[in-house]
Write a structure and sequence with these properties.
This protein is α+β, with helices and mostly antiparallel strands. The chain is built from 9 helices and 9 strands.
């Protein structure tokens, strides 16, 4: 999927001259936390978010520091900070030259950009003109709308076992030489050991995602490599206790 497949085309925007009050009211009205800033030629010049309004003189939340720290910061940084906390126009608080993507940008690159820049939305541009926005909410919508297309259920337990083994073999984290799998009536049992705690959980997920699997039971013991301590699967221990209790009743 690309950015163009998930982007919101209805763009709510502000101009550099929009007042901070109008900007805040627009965010609240549309229930969004960020807006592209567009000039009179429809070119993107910045982006403004709710985070840009956290430190404001109106709410008495502007930074307060000791004099010696302000001296170390220097007048230029302090003056820039003053503009950000006291400025009345969007141009004075916005982030200029924001990160952007194109319609054809693969979705995994969009997500990588969001993660590395620690941002919640990315404008989609053609040239310098904004044609859409991809936000984290859009990614959730994409996830919800692309419900997994289940392959036809495996016809027998042997097929299920082979598919689980094949899925584990494709994963670099899977200790395939230490795990055995049995399948009966669509119920997968995982046997053996893992060398890291999350390998057990990942193996269960891998089995659960195979078409035709009705349930997954883990009997995987975790062997801590440094100490050699063996930690049984908690769910397996619970099952043993339940069986023992029923036998003694």
């Amino acid at each position: 999927m690309n950015a163009g497949d998930v982007m919101t085309q209805h763009i709510v925007s502000v101009t550099p001259e929009t007042s901070i009050l109008d900007m805040a009211q627009l965010m609240l009205k549309n229930r969004i936390s960020g807006l592209p800033v567009i000039d009179d030629k429809r070119n993107l010049v910045g982006i403004v978010t709710e985070g840009d309004c956290l430190r404001r003189v109106e709410t008495n939340t502007e930074p307060r520091r000791r004099r010696w720290l302000e001296f170390l910061m220097g007048p230029d940084r302090l003056a820039n900070e003053y503009v950000h906390t006291h400025g009345g126009r969007v141009s004075e608080v916005m982030t200029p030259d924001p990160a952007t993507v194109a319609v054809e940008t693969p979705l995994h690159e969009v997500v990588h950009l969001m993660e590395t820049r620690r941002i919640k939305r990315v404008p989609v541009v053609r040239g310098r003109q904004v044609i859409g926005i991809v936000s984290r909410a859009d990614l959730l919508h994409a996830l919800a709308s692309t419900a997994r297309e289940m392959a036809p259920s495996a016809t027998n337990d042997t097929t299920i076992r082979n598919q689980v083994l094949a899925e584990l073999a494709r994963q670099p984290w899977a200790p395939t030489n230490l795990i055995n799998i049995t399948v009966r009536a669509g119920i997968v049992d995982l046997w053996g050991v893992v060398l890291a705690e999350h390998q057990r959980e990942a193996a269960i997920v891998a089995a659960e995602n195979i078409a035709g699997v009705k349930a997954v039971r883990s009997h995987l013991a975790w062997v801590e490599p440094m100490s050699g301590v063996v930690i049984d699967d908690p769910s397996d221990e619970a099952a043993h206790r339940k069986v023992a209790a029923s036998e003694s009743a």
